[in-house]
Amino acid sequence: MSRRPSPARKPAASAATTAPAARTKLPAAAAKARPVPPAAAAKARPAVPAALPARVREALFARLAAADPEPRSELGWTTPFELLIAVVLSAQATDKGVNKATAKLFPVANTPAAIVALGVDGLIPYVRTIGLFRNKAKNIVGLARQLLERHGGEVPRDAVALEALPGVGRKTANVVRNVAFGEPTIAVDTHVFRVANRTGLASGRTPDAVEAQLLRAVPPAYLQHAHHWLILHGRYVCVARKPKCGECPIADLCRWPEKTSPAAVEASTGAKSARATPQRQPAAPDAGKATTKPRGGSRTTTRDR
């Protein structure tokens, strides 16, 4: 009896062909990532105020000038050298704190020769209350010595020569040139930087960029005092954390998207005053009468005489 030929065995499939295709496992952060819609991305980015037109810039500085026609530095000084020392000390310090220190220092040493004679160790007791006083004392003695050696003991009005002095940067040099020598420069400190970017006068990520834009944006008639107007406005009105938009004379010209509108300020102020002021109770109908209780316990009233 003939046997039927056994069917040919199929070759065993490899694991690669039988197993389902393995999925590539993405990292958790990548798996959760989702494309951000363009509108949401634009909303997440901080808004940059639009640049102010020339007529608005003119009106802005006209108002600041009307409020303070002759702005002055709040640092105490009588000579360019005293101003230079005060500005060097004012870095990361308040003008009030600097004035307290220089009120004791300048009667003792207010010339380059006197500062060099005092030396670093002799200067430190006068400036100890100011931040970074050791490094500042070293720079002040160094710049005083350099003034004697290279400039005949006089403070130069040239920007390059000023910035070559120890402890003197671009901002310090611009303050000295503007305040002591009347040069139309703009020193960009934290207040000027904030006000310029918020209002739309200048938008930049560095002080140098803001300075360059301000020199082009400020109308020539206001360039001399623009530095002080912007500093004082940022110091007392357009403050960092809670700007006083309700007191701002240029609020309607400002392009800052997060500014508080005058209506909101007025509503907030009215609500606060209403909460703070107690309501006056109406007078009783029998006001002007005195109520007495006799010993018998019954209550009688008699008119005041």
Describe this structure in words.
Helix content is 50%, strand content 3%. It has helices at residues 15-18, 28-32, 38-44, 54-67, 80-89, 95-105, 112-127, 133-150, 159-163, 170-181, 190-199, 207-217, 223-236, 262-276, and strands at residues 289-292, 300-303. The N and C termini lie far apart (149 Å). Mean pLDDT is 80; it is low at 11-22, 26-33, 38-46 and 268-305. The protein is elongated and about 55 Å long. It has a two-stranded antiparallel ribbon with strand order 1-2. It has 305 residues and is mostly helical. It contains 14 helices and 2 strands. The chain has a domain at 80-181: Hypothetical protein, domain 2 (Endonuclease III, domain 1), CATH 1.10.340. Strand 1 and strand 2 form a beta hairpin.
**In which range does the helix fraction lie?**
40-55%
Instruction: Report the portion of residues in β strands.
Output: under 5%
The CATH class of the domain at 80-181 is Mainly Alpha
How confident overall, as mean pLDDT? 80
CATH architectural label of the domain at 80-181: Orthogonal Bundle
Q: Mind telling me the CATH superfamily name of the domain at 80-181?
A: Hypothetical protein, domain 2
Rg, Å, rounded:
36 Å
Low-confidence stretches: 11-22, 26-33, 38-46, 268-305
User: Would you tell me which CATH topology of the domain at 80-181 applies?
Assistant: Endonuclease III, domain 1
- Counting helices, strands and paired strands, the structural category is mainly alpha
Read across the widest sheet, the strand sequence of neighbours is 1-2
Would you list the SSEs in sequence order as H and E? HHHHHHHHHHHHHHEE
**C-alpha geometry:** elongated
Number of strands: 2
* N-to-C span: 149 Å
Total helix count? 14
Largest β-sheet summary: 2 strands, antiparallel
